[in-house]
Amino acid sequence: MEKLYAKTCHKLETIIHELEIEINCPIEKTETIIKQIIHSLSDLKGHVLKNGFKSIDEEVFFFKHQKPVIVAKLIYYNSIYKIETRKPYGAKSIKKYLKKELRKLKKFFEHNIDFYKYYRSGNSFLDENFFSRGKHDIRLWLDTFYFEADHRFCTSHDYKVAKIIANDLIQVYLEDQLNRNYKNRSNESSLSWTGSKAALTELIYALYSQGIFNNGNTDLKLITKTFETALNIDLGDFYHTFMEIKARKINRTKFLDNLCETLIKKMDEQ
After folding, report:
1. Whole-number Å distance between alpha carbons of 34 and 135
2. How far apart are CA 129 and CA 126, in angstroms?
3. Cβ atoms 146, 159 nearer than 8 A
4. Pick from 137, 156, 129: which is nearest to 145 by CA?
5. Beta-carbon neighbour count of residue 72 at 10 Å?
6. Phi first, then psi: what are they for 141, rounded to 5°?
7. Record's superkingdom (predicted)?
8. What is the pTM of this model?
C-alpha cells in the first residue's frame, strides 16, 4: 500500500502542478483537477477492495494519514470551484461574500472542536474506532455523511480529517483573495525576507519535510503562503525553484549548511 500511495500522490501532485501553470481560468482548472483526483481515489479504492490491509495498524494509518490527504484536495478544489462560480460582481459584494465563506469555516471548527483537539494534539487512543472500517460510535462526533458512504472504503472519521486539512487550505485561499483586493498596508508585517527566494524555499521544504507544523498534517502550500505573508515576499513558482535546488550538482542544501555554520560560529564567539 505504501508504494502505491506514494506513486499515486507523486503522479497527482505532478499533474496538479502542471495544470496550475498551464490553465489560467480558475473554473476550468478546478474542473480538470477534480477529475484527476477522482481518478486517483478510484485507483486506491480498487486496490483496497481487492487486497485489503496486512494489519489493523496499516488500515488505521491509511485512513488517518494517507487517504485524507487526497480527499482533502478533492474538497479543496471542489470548494474553490463553488466559490468562483458563485462569486458576485462588485468589490463590496465580493468582500462580503468571501468573509461569509470564512465564517463557514469557523462554524465547522466550532462544531467539531473536540475532534480538532484530538487530531491536532496527535492523540491515538481512539484511532481504532475512528479509522478502521466497520467500527463506529455515534457518540463520538459522527457525521450523517458516514451512513451514506461506502463502508468498504471509509471509516467514521477519515472524511472529517480530510475536511480539516482542506479547510486550512480554503482559509488561505479566501484570505489571499481578500488581501489581493483589499490589502491594508498598515497591517503588513514589519519583517521582510531579504535573502534569495531559493534560500527561503530551501528552508520551507526542510521544515515541511521535518513535519514540525500541526504534527506533520499541514499542506506545503499552506506553509508557503504563511511565510510569504509573514515575510512580505512572493515566492512565485516555489515548486519549480525546489526542482532547481534538487538539480544542484554540488551542495544542494547550501543555505541550510551556511545557516548551521553561522550559528555554530556565533555560539563559539559568545
Report:
1. 29
2. 5
3. yes
4. 156
5. 24
6. 50, 50
7. Bacteria
8. 0.69
